[in-house]
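Ops channel
N.P.: pipeline sanity check, posting one input/output pair.
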């Protein structure tokens, strides 16, 4: 009986930890999303810099983890330019590469285009894209054109 109570208590504590972790992660994504929408999307050469410019540069690694955020950034040329200026090692980041592919559509096509102009997809991402080519046919077709070894 004592063991049963201990097991139940441990299960409840584990469930609370998981729920708290998940809520905190969701809250962070929502916070990033709400601030990202406030970032100035106009030409940085023709406007005064503000606190959102520094915030954007500090969070590019967070953006790379989300298809939604990458898609949003890809819809604004100046944001995308700032993203490429600040991201570290995009040619080594499989999560970023997959999210660029996932965000690919007519609206966000420049992300993948600009990536393929400078970098190669990782071999595991190429394999993943080939396996998921029906789901991501637009990106698959683009990569077939962009890479001779695809």
């Amino acid at each position: 009986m004592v063991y049963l109570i201990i097991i139940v208590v441990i299960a409840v504590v584990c469930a609370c930890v998981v729920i708290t972790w998940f809520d905190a992660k969701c809250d962070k994504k929502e916070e990033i999303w709400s601030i990202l929408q406030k970032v100035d999307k106009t030409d940085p050469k023709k406007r005064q810099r503000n606190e959102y410019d520094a915030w954007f540069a500090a969070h590019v690694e967070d953006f790379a983890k989300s298809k939604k955020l990458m898609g949003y950034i890809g819809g604004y040329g100046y944001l995308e330019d700032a993203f490429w200026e600040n991201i570290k090692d995009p040619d080594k980041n499989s999560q970023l590469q997959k999210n660029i592919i996932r965000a690919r559509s007519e609206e966000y096509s420049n992300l993948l285009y600009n990536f393929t102009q400078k970098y190669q997809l990782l071999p595991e991402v190429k394999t993943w894209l080939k396996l998921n080519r029906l789901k991501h046919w637009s990106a698959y077709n683009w990569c077939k054109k962009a890479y001779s070894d695809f």
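N.P.: looks fine end to end. Residues 14-25 have pLDDT under 50 and may be disordered.
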